[in-house]
Design a protein that fits this description.
heterodimer, A: alpha/beta, eight-stranded mixed beta sheet, four-stranded antiparallel beta sheet, B: mainly alpha, MetI-like fold, two-stranded antiparallel sheet, 2 strands, MetI-like_sf (chain B), transport (chain B), ABC transporter permease (chain B)
């Protein structure tokens, strides 16, 4: 049986505002298998964090899930009552936030925060919870854990605090950990340690990871598969090596081309012209057509649905059957070419 | 921590010495004290004799030192009006004022904090709106008007509570308390509500604003993501973080409750220090005014010291700061 730990089907999230309904997510689908690390990348505003918040049930008003479903271990969780969802948070889904400096309550000892979480979710006594908390702190690499457990958050460095946050996310042995930009606020030297730690701990436990980041380097090192998001949709999803080495979607091509490499063979890095559309002004058809160097009439009129292509799922008309010549032409055009003017693409 | 407390105590002593100097200067500002003791036709020799007896010939600094030394033994001289030691007069009336102020402070905290939490958590509910409207009234209506309204409703119309006085008191050593007799307890309800209403609305609005601020922080979001119950999040994590500013304000307010209980005491004919002080002002009774000044300064300084220590108890970051500073 290879049922995915997390299965998101056609998820839609709306933000109802005075000036109308904004579609933050518009039909997002993906699976994460046991022990798998799914990287979620995209520019700011692509819907990465909203996806994470939707999965753990922490979309705040005026946001709401307006369609689709979220299945955790085959059980639907997006329509659970708040109390039942609360028992899943922390117990079956752990979460790590971006800024470890503000994730911990400054007035409570780190040990008490871990013990509190363990006691909330597991049927153990206080002494046992404390013993587990010390073990966890040791496991996430806090030196002298027996002593440090009684320390306050301000006595820990940023990297150490993120280790504590990770211990908190893992303390009830969840099936899934959502890490939302876990290294963005950290020093580069510490980033690699934290990423390595997340990867190792989750691999040992068979925990699935949803790693949200805009750092392609982190994804390339850590993830098994990667989902590229654009304007509230998944543009492309596939095995990480493939997507990084040979991206299909024009947006992924631009994104991968913008990673600096140490070999430095290219004269200059690829830039995607323009910027991500605001939620209030998502273009018709394929949302990327205004920035795409390969756009044609259909992109302007219809929205491409994800389709299988050589092991990826790509939401781009270039990968429909019968588009081989267009694909070949597109391969010759650099990813940072200016977009096709709208007039030209119009039918 | 100990070093911090000692340093704060030293600062407090400086403040009290300064206030002592001002209190001492009061005596000299209103002219020659001998004129107020003797009659107009007292011969000059006798005046000089009294002057020497009272030590008024000594240099000012010596007189100031003597004043402080006496003040340290609670000897503030004899009231011009009552011909009694000031310390006895104040000692008789202080329990009434302190009891009124403390009950008012307790009322403002016990009612204000839950109301603040409620209005923060249930924003937009009918009860929250009612609380907010009530708080606006509490902030804007003057004390004497509230006192008159309360008295009209609860004393005159309903006849439930006495409209003035302190009721029967019980003597516990030097302290006379009204909190142990039914009539005393009944008598303190209206004055303490009158006195504490403003502080209550202030604390409610402060708790609400701080709570809304804290509920937006990352560690509250993270606490939700850990699956903690709403109760643990709201009352464990959020409320404790709102308390630091609340302690500051509540502490400062306690000082002003004691110092400015005057009006409430006057309206309810409460036998506290307020009436004594107002009488002293009317009759230029300098020893009472000076003693009252020093007493209020002492209370403010002590309250601030306790507030600083409470900070450290609540917030571990400040504890570390105090250790290194």
């Amino acid at each position: 049986m290879t049922q995915p730990v997390l299965s998101v089907r056609d998820l839609k999230v709306d933000f109802v505002t005075r000036r109308g309904t904004l579609k933050a997510l518009d039909g997002v689908s993906f699976d994460i298998a046991r022990g798998e690390v799914l990287g979620v990348v995209g520019e700011s505003g692509a819907g990465k964090s909203v996806t994470g918040a939707a999965v753990i049930g922490l979309i705040e008003p005026p946001g709401r899930i307006s369609g689709g479903e979220i299945l955790l271990g085959g059980q639907r969780i997006d329509d659970l009552p708040p109390a039942a969802m609360r028992r899943i948070r922390g117990r079956r889904i752990g979460m790590v936030f971006q800024d470890p400096l503000t994730s911990l309550n400054p007035l409570y000892r780190v040990g008490d925060q871990i013990v509190e979480t363990i006691l909330t979710h597991l049927p153990v006594g206080r002494a046992e919870a404390r013993r587990r908390a010390i073990d966890l702190l040791k496991e996430v690499g806090i030196p002298a854990a027996e002593r440090r457990i009684d320390g306050y958050p301000h006595e820990f460095s940023g990297g150490m605090r993120q280790r504590v946050v990770l211990a908190l996310a893992l303390c009830a042995e969840p099936e899934l950990v959502i890490a939302d930009e876990p290294t963005t606020a950290l020093d580069v030297s510490v980033q690699a340690q934290i990423i390595g730690l997340i990867k190792r701990l989750c691999a040992e436990r068979g925990t699935a990871v949803m790693l949200i980041t805009h750092d392609m380097g982190v994804i390339a090192e850590t993830a098994d598969r990667v989902a590229v998001m654009y304007a509230g949709r998944v543009a492309e999803i596939g095995p990480v090596r493939d997507v990084v080495k040979r991206p299909f979607h024009p947006y992924s091509r631009g994104l991968m081309g913008s990673i600096p490499t140490l070999e430095g063979t290219a004269d200059r890095l690829v830039q995607i012209p323009g910027s991500m559309p605001r939620l209030a002004a998502i273009p018709s058809g394929c949302a990327f057509h205004t920035r795409c160097p390969h756009a044609f009439a259909q992109c302007w009129l219809e929205r491409p649905e994800p389709m299988e292509h050589e092991g990826h799922r790509v939401a781009c008309f270039l990968y429909e059957p019968g588009m081989e010549s267009a694909r070949a032409r597109a391969d010759r055009i650099p990813a940072d070419s200016p977009p096709v003017p709208t007039e030209e693409a119009k039918p | 921590m100990l070093a911090f407390i000692l340093r704060r105590i030293a600062q407090s002593v400086v403040v009290l010495l300064t206030v002592g100097l001002i209190a001492f200067a009061l005596f000299r500002l209103v002219g020659d004290p001998i004129n107020q003791i003797v009659s107009l036709d007292t011969p000059q020799e006798q005046r000089l004799k009294i002057r020497a007896e009272l030590g008024l010939d000594d240099p000012v600094i010596v007189q100031f030192g003597r004043y402080l030394a006496r003040a340290a033994h609670f000897d503030f001289g004899i009231s011009y009006q009552f011909r009694q030691p000031v310390s006895t007069l104040i000692g008789e009336r202080m329990p009434a004022t302190l009891e009124l102020s403390l009950v008012a402070a307790l009322f403002s905290l016990v009612v204000g904090i839950p109301m603040g939490v409620y209005t923060a958590l249930r924003r937009g509910s009918a009860l929250s709106s009612a609380f907010m409207a009530l708080s606006l009234a509490g902030v804007s209506l003057p004390t004497f008007l509230i006192a008159i309204l309360l008295r009209y409703v609860f004393s005159v119309q309903l006849g439930w509570l006495p409209s003035f006085g302190r009721g029967a008191v019980v003597q516990l050593g030097f302290w006379s308390t009204g909190l142990l007799t039914p009539s005393g307890l009944k008598a303190i309800i209206l004055p303490s509500i009158t006195l504490g209403l403003f502080q209550m609305t202030l604390i409610m609005r402060l708790v609400r604003a701080e709570m809304l601020e804290v509920l937006r922080t990352d560690y509250i979001k993270f606490a939700r993501a850990r699956g903690l119950s709403d109760r643990a999040i709201h009352f464990g994590h959020a409320l404790k973080n709102t308390l630091v500013p609340v302690i500051t304000i509540a502490g400062l307010q306690l000082g002003s409750l004691i110092a400015f209980a005057l009006i409430t005491e006057y309206v309810f004919q409460w036998p506290g220090m307020g009436a004594l002080f107002l009488g002293a002002v009317q009759n230029v009774d300098i020893p009472i005014m000076a003693a009252y000044l020093m007493l209020i300064a002492f209370i403010f300084v002590m309250v601030n010291l306790v507030v600083d220590i409470l900070y450290a108890v609540v917030d571990p970051r400040l504890r570390a700061h105090f250790q290194t500073a």
